[in-house]
Amino acid sequence: MFRATIDAELFKDAIEVVSVLVEESIFNADENMVVSKAVEPANAAMVVLEMKKEAFDVYESDSHELGIDLKRLSNVLDMAQRGDMVELELEEHKLKVVMGGLRYHLSLLDPSTIRKIPKVPQIQLPARVVVDGSTIQRAIKAASSVGSYVALGVEDESFYIETEGDTDKLRFVIGRDELIDLQGDDVRSLFSLDYLRSITKSKAFGRAVVTLEIGIDYPIKISFSFADGNINTMYIVAPRVEAV
């Protein structure tokens, strides 16, 4: 048994933070929460989404694995109007979605056909930056017109984002006083702009306070919460090691 009711815009935001990286994912539902863990095809980035039962107006669930085509579900949620509630219910091998007088029955995917759920690596990184997501969105958008890779780092008690193309260079610096928090050592890692551009484009990211955990040529952890802390998102992106 799986039955839940949630604000349509909130559910759409939650699905979007996964769909920016992958087209399909397994959602594991139990009595306390819904969890999705997915890795994109190149194995360079992964996402973890946790939706606690408190994020829902109604939530009842046994243990279920729900294989979901995210594009199809997103297309359904695009039909929602402001203030709509989404009613979700598992009916055999379909997910019934009811909202605003519309009723859909979405066929679920066989979980065995979806990429294996990854083990979330336990990484302790030496620097931690807390900043408004909208600030990161603006910096990544600006960097996208310059190069293909972007360096994120901490130096002289400031956080910076920089990229260099064939002719242009961009450096975006935020001092400690402008950040919500900054802890740790000087670090620097290089990442593909494609992944960071995808991750930062969601609406939930732009409205959230975002934590970045960075090392030296290590994966970056990007995490944020919304819905009063009842929906948590974490991305891990592999670095591009710079040639010496």
Tell me what the structure shows.
- 18% of the residues lie in helices and 46% in strands.
- By secondary structure, it is α+β, with helices and mostly antiparallel strands.
- The protein has 2 domains: 2-113, Box (Proliferating Cell Nuclear Antigen), CATH 3.70.10; 127-237, Proliferating Cell Nuclear Antigen, CATH 3.70.10.
- The strands form 3 sheets. The chain has a 9-stranded antiparallel beta sheet with strand order 6-2-3-4-18-17-16-10-14. Strands 5-1-7-8-9 form a 5-stranded antiparallel beta sheet.
- A hairpin with a 2-residue loop joins β7 and β8 (94-99).
Rg computed from alpha carbons, rounded to a whole number of angstroms: 19 Å
The termini sit apart by: 56 Å
Query: Considering DSSP H and I runs of 4 or more, what fraction of the residues is helical?
Result: 10-25%
> What low-confidence regions span 5 or more consecutive residues with pLDDT below 50?
none
Please write the CATH class name of the largest domain.
Answer: Alpha Beta
Kindly name the structural category: alpha+beta
Can you tell me the CATH architecture of the largest domain? Box
The fold-level CATH name of the largest domain is Proliferating Cell Nuclear Antigen
Reported for the largest beta sheet, the result is: 9 strands, antiparallel
* Individual helix count: 5
Inertia-based shape: elongated
Order of helices and strands: EHEEEEEHEEEEHEEEEEHHEEE
How many structural domains can be distinguished in the coordinates? Answer: 2
**Largest sheet, order of strands side by side?**
6-2-3-4-18-17-16-10-14
**Number of strand segments:** 18
The average pLDDT is 94
Percent of residues in beta strands?
over 45%
